[in-house]
Amino acid sequence: MCSFELHGFADASEKGKGAVVYLKTISPNGNCFIELIYSKTKVAPVQTVPLPRLELCALVLLAHLVAHLQTQLRFDAALHLWSDSMNTLHWILAVPTRWMTYFANRVSEIQTIVPSAIWHHVPGADNPADCASRGLSAYELSQFSLGWNSPPWLKKQEEWPSSLLGPPENAVPKEERRVTVNVAVRVNEPCDLLSRYTSLDKLLRVTAWCLRVRDALKCRSIIGSRILVASDLRTALLFWIQQGQNRYFPNEITALKNKMQISKTNTLIKLTPFFDGQLLRVGGRLKHSLLTYDENHPLILPPESILTTLIIRDCHLRCLYGGVQLTLGTLRQSYWILRGRNLVISLIHLSIPCVRNRGNTQQQLISDLSSIRVTPPERVFMNTGVDYAGPINVRTSKGRGHHSHKAWICFFVCCASCSVHLELVSDYTAEAFIAAYIRFISRRGLCRTLSSDEGTNFAGADRQLQEMFSEASAEFASVATYLASYGTQWRFNPPAAPYFRGLWEAAVKSTKFHLRRVIGDSTLTFEEMTTLLTQIEACLNSRPLRAQSDDPTDISALTPGHFLIGASLNAVPEPLLADVLPNRLTRWQLIQQMRDHFSYK
């Protein structure tokens, strides 16, 4: 029975590349017949390509020719492939990942197409594919016996050129893949929990359970309650703060432990820090005041710590995505962050809800303030502005199948203290407004003047709202009559002038600022929306009335809440100062003491 062999030759030049395939048939009596059965040529690319790359492309062409022949032939044949390029043979016989991308892709393609091929090196003078790559005229091709009849030594295997490859040329090392190892220096944190969680609450809960398990293992006891309490979360928070301070302030803590002074060039020198045995805190001259310990001596947080970022994000969320002043003022009730203002600004600018709802508005020229804005009244909400915002969708109750209906927010803003009172109303009727006004004065007291926009200023509002706030409408007559019975005078802005009373317009803007970020497209029930509006009201009445100072001795800023309850609505309750000697109090604390004497004695 005859045996068969396929011998393929490939070559390339700057003009083109070619491949030829011969079929070698060996009869049982030892006779050998070789015939040319396939050949193909391609021109070289227009752009200049190095010759080793062209040689490799020629072998790709040869591999495709041989693979096609193997699918067409109905018998098995041993496969021998030849090339006169040492570089290409070294590339093909090596692992593809060793080479650069261009060579690795083509080597991998060849090894995939013809995995059973046996590769040999042939001298350039004996390569029959040389004519296909360099080109011959028709007469020269007819006289080219090497191409038609194959090399004479191909008939006897013992006469084949040596299959041992010599050393590669200089081009091989140049094409090896240059592996770049990027070494990520991991932050030397005590645990990877800080980088694993993006929520402070989840981090503290996981840490609290870990500390519980640790304490149980130390005592060889079982874990008690399956519910975390506030002390567990506080312990977890102090644990992470201690770890962060030990990492970022080791020299300062060591110096303070040894009763030594820290360097005068240190950034902490202005805070007069002290070490309370566990944590680093802000010092100062308020050590003996009756404020809370955390408010007197805030914990110092490094700006580079991941924990600091989590604390700022958590405070920003609890403030319902408030601005820089509100977030920074709330943070400084318990913490002092180095370069805190810049860090808060950068994190707020990266907050997705804030970015989505932040828009550039055209700035208006500021006019003179009216007399009710600059004249101190007898109490808060003596001169009040009123406005509507909405509509917003609220549901009748929880669960499926309950339809939503429209509701509006009624704003009452004190013209002197900028205090805000929010009421949720269900429609535009005068009865609904009077009901909201009764709820307002029942909690805030009667007003001397009540100011609002003219009905035409409600751009895009419903016709009913325009009629109710129109001076010539019957709705206004009924409301004004009711207000007159309580000694309240209703004033209107000039028509088509929504900027005339920008105070309550700013309150509407601030409320929408929190409302959009909290509920988004959600639909709440009437009770849930009322609760959320009271929280937003507390945030608005807790915002500082002036810019926050970077002085660590400034404990708190003046807010509208100080005019309502004597303190910020989101602040920790202040201690009673009625029994403290007046010469030990600051001016603000002295005023608080006067209030305490009036209230409790």
How is this structure best described in words?
The chain is α/β, with parallel strands linked by helices and 601 residues long. It has 24 helices and 15 strands. The chain has helices spanning 51-72, 86-92, 101-113, 130-134, 138-142, 145-149, 171-174, 193-196, 200-219, 230-248, 250-257, 293-296, 306-318, 324-331, 340-349, 352-357, 371-374, 430-444, 463-468, 474-485, 502-519, 526-540, 560-564, 587-600; strands at 3-12, 16-26, 32-43, 78-83, 118-121, 274-275, 280-281, 299-301, 335-337, 383-395, 404-414, 420-425, 449-452, 489-492, 524-525. The strands form four sheets. Strands 10, 11, 12, 13, 14 and 15 form a six-stranded mixed beta sheet that branches. A five-stranded mixed beta sheet has the order 3-2-1-4-5. Strands 6-7 form a two-stranded antiparallel sheet. A hairpin with a 5-residue loop joins strand 2 and strand 3 (32-43). Helix 13 (306-318) packs across helix 14 (324-331).
Q: What does the average pLDDT come to?
A: 79
Structural class designation: alpha/beta
Helical stretch tally: 24
User: How many strands in all?
Assistant: 15
Low-confidence stretches: 181-189, 456-462
Terminal CA distance: 123 Å
Task: Sum up the overall morphology in one term.
Answer: elongated
Rounded Rg: 43 Å
